[in-house]
TrEMBL record:
CDD domains: CAP_ED. This is Crp/Fnr family transcriptional regulator. Residues 1-117 form the Cyclic nucleotide-binding domain. Pfam families: cNMP_binding. InterPro entries: cNMP-bd_dom (IPR000595), cNMP-bd_dom_sf (IPR018490), RmlC-like_jellyroll (IPR014710).
Amino acid sequence: MKSNVFDILKQQFNRLEVPAKTTLLKEGEISKTMFLIEKGCLRTWVNNNGAEITTQFFFEGDRVSSIESFRTKQPSLYSIESLEPTILQTLSQADFQMMIESSPELKKEMEEHLYKRLFQSQQFLYSFLKNNPQKRYEELLKQHPHIVQRVPQHYIASYLGITPVSLSRIRNRR
């Protein structure tokens, strides 16, 4: 029977409740915590000359960290922020490392999770390169309708690489 990362690690987690608009990690800081979302929504974003560009959304059951920073102790390429009041289970870098090293099952499951995330990122990148904003929005509606239902429009527009006004026009055409 395949193990579940949460089941293996749950004794190491600490509960954290945060209000909406709480920054959990700032771009440029070293990530020392992994988050499991129990309830709520997080986003990752980058600063582009003062403009926030949303890169991903995460919801209940998702694991979130700046994995590159978390694993390599290099500065994070992005920030992590709550979009709504959120309940998190947190895991320290040291506890995670200890568990990965002592559990081949956990290491394999984490590897599979990372491959899945890489695949999702590649799909989004190629969609961004190939499709116009209308098509990207239609794909978002089809593949992730919960995002449109729960996330404020200006974050969705940023994620799609368009202005809120352009998103409003696209939505009005539907």
